[in-house]
C-alpha cells in the first residue's frame, strides 16, 4: 500500500516535470517554436498534456 507521504512526493515530482516542460516550451526561440508548429502561449496546455495525459473529450 502506498503511503500518503509517497503520494505527496510523487505529486511534487510530477508537478516539477510539468513546470520544467512548460518553461522550456514557453522559452523556445520563436523561430524554433514556429518550425515545430507550437504557439508559445499554448505552453501550459502542451505541458499538461505531456505530463498528465490528454484530457478526455
What does this structure look like?
There is one protein chain. With 57 residues, this protein is an all-alpha fold. It has helices at 4-26, 30-35, 43-52. It starts with a helix and ends in a 5-residue tail after the last helix.
Strand content: under 5%
Helix-strand category:
mainly alpha
Number of strands: 0
Unreliable sequence segments: none
Q: Could you report the average pLDDT, rounded to the nearest whole number?
A: 93
Oligomeric status of the shown chains? single chain
Cα(first) to Cα(last) distance is 32 Å
Order of helices and strands: HHH
- Tally of contiguous helical segments: 3
Helical coverage, percent range: 55-70%
* Dominant shape: elongated
Task: Give a short account of the largest sheet.
Answer: none
Question: Could you outline the blueprint of secondary structure elements for this entry?
Answer:
Layout: H1 4-26, H2 30-35, H3 43-52
Helix pairs in contact: 1-3
Task: List the defining traits of the structure above.
single chain; 57 residues; mainly alpha
Q: How is this structure best summarized?
A:
This protein has 57 residues and is mainly alpha-helical. The protein is built from three helices and no strands. It is elongated, with a radius of gyration of 14 Å.
Amino acid at each position: 500500500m502506498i503511503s500518503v507521504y509517497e503520494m505527496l512526493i510523487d505529486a511534487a515530482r510530477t508537478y516539477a516535470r510539468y513546470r520544467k516542460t512548460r518553461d522550456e516550451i514557453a522559452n523556445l526561440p520563436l523561430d524554433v517554436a514556429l518550425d515545430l508548429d507550437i504557439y508559445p502561449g499554448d505552453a501550459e496546455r502542451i505541458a499538461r498534456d505531456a505530463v498528465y495525459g490528454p484530457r478526455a473529450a
